[in-house]
Design goal:
mainly alpha; binds iron/sulfur cluster; 0% strand
Length: 93
Amino acid sequence: MPKKPLQEGSREAIYILTLPVGYRKMLSQSLSGECAPRSAIKAKCLSCTNFNKLEITECRCSICPLWRYRPYQVTTKVKRAKKAVVEAVLTTE
Ligand code: SF4
């Protein structure tokens, strides 16, 4: 992807100014083509959920082309660990 710095006063540059400060750099790099595709996906999901990571984890929009690639997914390993904890609690009661 060719890099194209954001021009001052452009639609993209104005959009960046409306974002939470902590996310401006990521979104700016994404819009200007200065980041990896994985980071661009993360930026899209964050902007889609108004920067709510939990909403990305719980996103149910499986028809979204980015859904299988979205960040903050609960891995199978974590799911198994949670299930084991629940089963351990239930068996001790
Ligand atoms: S995967 Fe979900 S959070 Fe990410 S862009 Fe698609 S709908 Fe939005």
